[in-house]
Each structure stands twice: as C-alpha cells, then as structure tokens.
Design brief:
250 residues; alpha/beta; Rossmann fold; 11 helices; 40% helix; globular; disordered C terminus; binds S-adenosylmethionine; Trimethylguanosine synthase; SAM-dependent_MTases_sf; RNA cap trimethylguanosine synthase activity; RNA_cap_Gua-N2-MeTrfase
C-alpha cells in the first residue's frame, strides 16, 4: 500500500474511532514506525500512549534485567523498555490493547523480549514481589480532559496515586511513575511514603511539557558529590527540601 493510501486509511480510521485529528497528526511522535502498520484500535490508546522519545528516555533510565509495565496499553512504553532491559513483563486488562501491544512490538522487533499478560495488575502484582528490578507505571489518568484544571486531581480516578505507590512498592523499591503534566508537585510529594527519596522529572517534547515522571529507589539520580558519605547526606537534604517545598496537605 502506498503512503497516500495509508494516510487516507489512517484518517478514515481516526474518524471512525472518533479520535481528535490532532492525534493522527502526531502519529509519528507516538510511534516513529507508525506507517509500518502500528495498530491503535480504540480512542483511549491514541491519547494514552507515551510518545516514543519520552518512552525511550524513560527506558534509558530504567535500564535493568527484569522490568514490569503493569499498565501496558498498546505498547508505547513496553516496546522502548525492551530496548534497554533484558526482559519485560507487560500487563494490560483490555484484550484488544494487549493484542495491539504485541503486534506493535513485532513491528519494532522486540516482541521476543516481552511477556504479554492479560489481567488486572492489582490482582497479579503479588506474584512479582521481590522478583523484578524495576516497575514502570503509567496508569490511566482519565484521558485528555484531565488537563482542564490547573492541576491534575489524582482523587478523581479509580486508584489514587498513594494506592498505586503503596501497592507497587511492595514489589520493588525502584519505581518510575508516569503522570499527567498537570500533576501538582505538592500532591506528588504527599503520596510518597516518609523516608523515601524521589525525583520529579518534567518530560518536554518540542518545548512543551508532555508528561511528568517520578522516580524512586535506585532510579533517582544521585546528586554530584565528592564522596559517598557526602552523597548520602545531600540526598537526604534533597528529600527534606522536597518535603519543605511541597508539604503534605493532611
Ligand atoms: C496510560 S495507558 C498506558 C499507555 C502505555 N504506557 C503506552 O505507552 O502505550 C494505561 C493502560 O492501563 C490499562 N489498565 C487500566 N487498569 C488496569 C489494571 N487494573 N490492570 C492492567 N491494566 C490496566 C488501560 O486499559 C490502559 O490501556
């Protein structure tokens, strides 16, 4: 099929799926190999996939042996994680999205590094406790409308951020959590258990902040220092500063 024909087919698909045309315009930002047959079978997949450059950056920070992507969607994140990690476990509770993720991973030639599991991440997570190095967590935060307020309100969705952090910290200390760009730094800070160091990263594409990633455990970049002892001190200071800057709302 020629390029023109493919574009026409994509535009038609977008219309039939009721996806805003801006997403089709951004399709190569989502997947650089979009024209090779990437499949996004429903509107939510279009607006929830992590843009490839951000996914690739986060994957470079999550480099490890075994990683779990408990909210895999149509595969934007797990495909990039498979390029930096030895083995990826991708969980998704919508069958068609899991099929898309597998199909899309085949296009990127990484499907053989990913185990695709259909199920509820909140039910399955106990089987991974102590057995994986890192979790990359990108839960559904409610689609494009979450951006309407000044700050994203975690409380509006099925799982609060606290619940997500508490649940997956049982599996591993090393979490990367993808949040909407409008998330309040104060709220993020108030959900991280006392005593844990964390890092908040703003992910920009073309001068526009697209998402926020929160890192915990060994994924937090150490501060530059001249000795290990000083490094530990300064990391504790960072935590204290974070808490002072964004005190808990309780
Ligand atoms: C934000 S999307 C993930 C996008 C993905 N990271 C990507 O880059 O393509 C969140 C996904 O989590 C799935 N999901 C929601 N609740 C879930 C659950 N309890 N267990 C597993 N998957 C779930 C949704 O169906 C949705 O596809």
């Amino acid at each position: 099929m020629g390029r023109k024909q493919r574009c026409k087919r994509n535009r038609k698909k977008c219309k039939s799926l009721k996806v805003h045309p801006k997403y089709i315009g951004q399709r190569f930002r989502l997947f650089s190999k979009f024209e090779q047959g990437i499949s996004l079978s429903d509107p939510e997949s279009w607006y929830s996939v992590l843009p490839e450059k951000i996914a690739s950056h986060v994957a470079s920070r999550c480099r490890c042996d075994i990683i779990v992507d408990p909210f895999a969607g149509a595969g934007g994140s797990c495909i990039q994680l498979a390029t930096t990690c030895t083995y990826v476990i991708a969980i998704e509770n919508v069958y068609t999205r899991l099929l898309d993720a597998k199909h899309n991973a085949e296009i990127y030639d990484v499907a053989n590094k990913i185990d695709f599991i259909l199920g509820d991440a909140f039910q399955i997570f106990p089987s991974f406790i102590g057995k994986v190095d890192v979790m990359f967590i990108a839960p559904p935060w409610g689609g494009p409308n979450y951006e309407n307020g000044d700050f994203f309100n975690f409380g509006r969705f099925q799982y609060g951020l606290s619940e997500i952090v508490d649940t997956f910290l049982q599996v591993t200390d090393n979490l990367a959590i993808s949040l909407p760009r409008s998330s309040s730094p104060r709220q993020i800070a108030s959900t991280i258990p006392e005593g844990r160091i964390f890092e908040v990263e703003y992910n920009y594409l073309n001068d526009k902040c697209k998402t926020i990633t929160v890192y915990l455990g060994s994924l937090v970049k150490p501060l530059v220092s001249s000795s290990v002892v000083q490094q530990t001190d300064s990391m504790v200071d960072t935590q204290r500063e974070n808490r002072e800057q964004y005190p808990s709302q309780d």
